[in-house]
From TrEMBL:
Name assigned to this protein: 4-hydroxy-3-methylbut-2-en-1-yl diphosphate synthase (flavodoxin)
Domain of life: Bacteria
Cofactor binding comment, as recorded: Binds 1 [4Fe-4S] cluster.
Binding site for [4Fe-4S] cluster: 260, 263, 295, 302
Length: 349
């Protein structure tokens, strides 16, 4: 279930019935203010709605302040160990902080962070990943996914005990099944928004497949309020993949290109045309199903739920709208005619 509570990261609501938010994280040196701001702008342009930045020590604070002041999206401060860095990040303009209360130290330090977070009215993200399961749970007889979830719940309890409930929870595993079970477990225990992801998912293709399987399963079970696709490399790819995943699953508006896998009956260059259609519609933020089918044997029938489509014929292609053929065109006119039909449909929508 999507979380019951709603948390605000500046003016962006997370949880409840609000849209799922795409996040990413900079991989630039935080002390390099200009480079970090440029990357944040690029991430925002790609579709990131929230960006996380590592704040390692107090030395990063002046640069972090400038980053927050010049960012086009809310900035989350990623903090480890030093409660003073968390406090100064909040004062410097962080829209949210990510800490694990357990590694902050004594309870009074956690309370100091909570005090400032309350004063500035910003949420705190807590949680656990597969590399930070508490020993008392890891050494117990409970399943590993439960140990992971209970480790995160312990962090939540530390926040609650400090009188703080403006919480976002994150549980991440490198194992997709464990990740699913842990997030499902915790979603049934607490009402806080969940930030979901597969941690250390690998390089592009591996991360794409693993994250799509693991996070898709969660989203289709209505679990998850914010999402990050972790990819070793350019974080822009994280945003583009997350955006596409949410669109294809129906959680975000945008075009879906339906294309047949091709066979001996194929009469047109399906992959080439479908790729062009993707390029034509890449900036569209409206629901639009476009089908590119190789032949008329099954084309209109299999893609009759599409808003518009084309099926290859011996001499060109048949263009259909809502399953009904509206025009048959020759091969040399096929691409331009189909593009015009798509443009007209977009204008109507």
């Amino acid at each position: 279930m999507f979380s019951k509570n709603t948390v605000y990261i500046k003016n962006i609501p997370i949880g409840g019935n609000n849209p799922i938010i795409i996040q990413s994280m900079t991989n630039t040196d935080t002390l390099d203010t200009e480079k970090t701001i440029k990357q944040i702008i690029n991430l925002s342009n790609a579709g990131a709605e929230v960006v996380r930045v590592s704040v390692r020590t107090l030395e990063d604070i002046p640069s972090f302040k400038k980053i927050c002041e010049n960012s086009t999206v809310p900035i989350v401060a990623d903090i480890h160990f030093d409660y003073r860095v968390a406090i100064e990040s909040i004062k410097a303009g962080a829209a949210k902080v990510r800490i694990n209360p357990g590694n902050i130290g004594e309870s009074w330090k956690v309370k100091e962070v909570v005090k400032i977070a309350k004063e500035y009215k910003i949420p705190i993200r807590v949680g656990a990943n597969s590399g930070s399961i508490k020993k008392e749970y890891e050494n117990s007889n409970m399943p590993r996914y439960q140990a992971l979830a209970e480790s995160a719940l312990q962090e939540v309890k530390l926040m609650e005990n400090a009188g703080f409930q403006d919480i976002v929870i994150s549980i991440k595993s490198t194992d997709a099944k464990e990740n699913f079970l842990a997030n499902k477990y915790i979603s049934e225990k607490v009402p806080y928004p969940l930030h979901i992801g597969i941690t250390e998912a690998g390089v592009y293709e591996d991360a794409l497949v693993l994250s799509s399987a693991g996070l898709g399963a969660l989203l289709l079970n209505n679990i998850g309020d914010t999402i990050r696709i972790s990819i070793a490399g350019d974080p822009i790819q994280e945003v583009l993949v997350a955006k596409k995943l949410l669109t294809l699953l129906g959680f975000k508006k945008g075009p879906r290109i339906i294309a047949c896998p091709t066979c001996a009956r194929t009469e047109i260059k399906v992959e080439e045309l479908a790729t062009k259609v993707k390029e034509w519609t890449k900036d569209i933020e409206k629901d639009l199903n476009i089908a590119v089918m190789g032949c008329v044997v099954n084309g209109p029938g299999e893609a009759k739920h599409a808003d518009i489509g084309i099926a290859g014929t011996k001499t060109g292609g048949a263009i259909f709208i809502n399953g009904e053929i509206v025009e048959t065109v020759s091969e040399n006119m096929l691409e331009n005619t189909f593009k015009k039909y798509i443009e007209n449909l977009i204008e109507k929508k």
